[in-house]
Amino acid sequence: MFKITANPAFTHPVTVLVPQDEGHVEQTFKARFKVLPDGEAEGFDVASKDGLKDFLRAVWVGLEDVVDDAGQQLSWSTDLREQMLGLPYVRLALLRTYMAALTKAKSGN
Hints:
Order of helices and strands: EEHHEHH
Largest sheet: 3 strands, antiparallel
Distance between the termini: 19 Å
Helix content: 25-40%
Strand content: 25-35%
Number of strands: 3
């Protein structure tokens, strides 16, 4: 049975490849996304930096498992969102996670 949800949303782990000397390190956090209807999503140019940031501001609505340099847990806020959106590797990881969640094919198909 398929259930229609008025405001679909989901939480998925986001894997970020953080650049470091001579490579990358994988770090993860959980992101909460809301699903944008096609009509709203089509208005964003995710190929541009500003368009991608605007798109992510519209779909990314929460997070978990993010800490500061001292290891202190950080809570969702507009300032934290903007700080993270200022990092290209975070933006790409968020977009990749959101799109994979929407387009994931059932295993074996």
